[in-house]
Amino acid sequence: MARYTARRLLQAIIVIFGITIAAFSINFLAGDPTYVLIGDMRGMTEEDIQAFRHRMGFDRPILVQYFDWLKNAVRGDFGWSYKYKEDNWKIIVERFPATLQLTVVSLILQLLVSFPLGVFAALKRGTKWDSFSMVLALLGQSMPSFWIGLMLMMIFSVNLKWLPVSGRYEGIRSMVLPVITLSFYGIARNTRLIRSSMLEVLGEDYIRTVRAKGQTERNVYIKHALRNVLIPVVTMVGMDLGSLLSGALVVETIFAWPGMGMLTVNAINGKDIMMVQACVTLFALMFVFANLLVDFTYTILDPRVRLQ
Length: 308
Prior knowledge:
The chain is mostly helical. It contains 14 helices and no strands. Helix content is 77%, strand content 0%.
């Protein structure tokens, strides 16, 4: 177990190092960051531009700039936002709870709906219920989230006026449409995944052996089949956790949800490079830690993972 943990942590450290390089490189995607940050240079002399470049440290060697940025990032210092005129980390701390709230509720809804649907469809294979579930799952995976969000908004907010269009601070009702939109694809995909995994497990030799020993169908499903079905589900949930925590850019933008996704979009539109760097770094770190969580969960569900 110790070797497995050490290997996974070493891999994560290498990935994080690559992430920091990619995030730092955002500075130079549009050329000289000095001119990007200054924007309108009317009324500025060449001396003013060079003074700004020196003040920001852009006149130093690239490696020196990178290690200074990395040192500050480790301390939680991601610079100053030119759009919001505040410390980037302070803004992120204010916005992250909104994304976390949306993520947790969406993830819970995905599991509560997709798990029983997928298991029941597998147990009722070939029936009308199975066909109905798979048609719904296929439709859910075919429709893009921005279209689902706009349709839900038009029906329940504009026409029926049951739910608010957007806004986090209007109570639980304001979460309904963003959560459904964010969960729709995950519910459809996980339902198909759980169904196929359940059918595969039920066809294994050990399941036939368990049945031959006289175990009830309830014990076969709960004690023996579902444990192995959880392994691919945990993989998908881990990926969902990383993507949802990263701030669903489209969904948060559509519903004006004041989370990390909308913050990133506004930073990109406003050419707020340092904020974009901070958001990209944190998004990637969330994916890394979500994958680590999935890897360690494997060792609980299947001890063979530790031995391999």
